[in-house]
Amino acid sequence: MGQHSIYGVTFECVQGDITGQDDMDAIVNAANAELRTGGGVAGAIHRAAGPGLEEECRSKAPIQPGEAVISGGHELPNRYVIHCLGPVYGIDEPADERLADCYRNAIALAEEKGLRSVAFPAISTGAFGYPMESAARVAMRTLVFLAKQGTSVEHIRFVLFSEEDRSIHDQALGAMVDRDV
Ligand code: ADP
To answer: Domain with 149 in it: what CATH number?
Structure first.
């Protein structure tokens, strides 16, 4: 499982838990519209961050599909959490555009804060039902395009729960290497 340097940005796909990424400036939450705790990624992040995270987020909610907001990391090892509301597959349309918006808006917030490293989960692929392969293609296409345009973010890590999901993301990333986007 390698790292790829694409247009000067280091991309990698690892198997693991999004709350265990101590070396990253920010982690991304697959949030719900209310920015509350919940299942999946949001539950894990809020549990690890402590109650201060929900409290800080209250005034920023609700958010729309494709939108992102940023908060402090509270008890997480990361300085920031970037909360993205992914599209519910089959409901928030066009799904690929709303999902791409999440990645674009997350990187824009990271740039505003001058962050160098961001770890993403596979937004929308759990409770929101987005098929893993298509979601991985949208994510990589969007992020590689941003890298090509030039970004101050130097390191992008995908953190996938299962080895199968890691491999799907690694393949989607590999398909972008050397492709003109
Ligand atoms: P969504 O509601 O956007 O679909 P979920 O949190 O339900 O978000 O799931 C998004 C993806 O994150 C799924 O593929 C799920 O398997 C994975 N996932 C769940 N918990 C974690 C975690 N702690 N770290 C990394 N990935 C996780």
So the answer is: 3.40.220.10
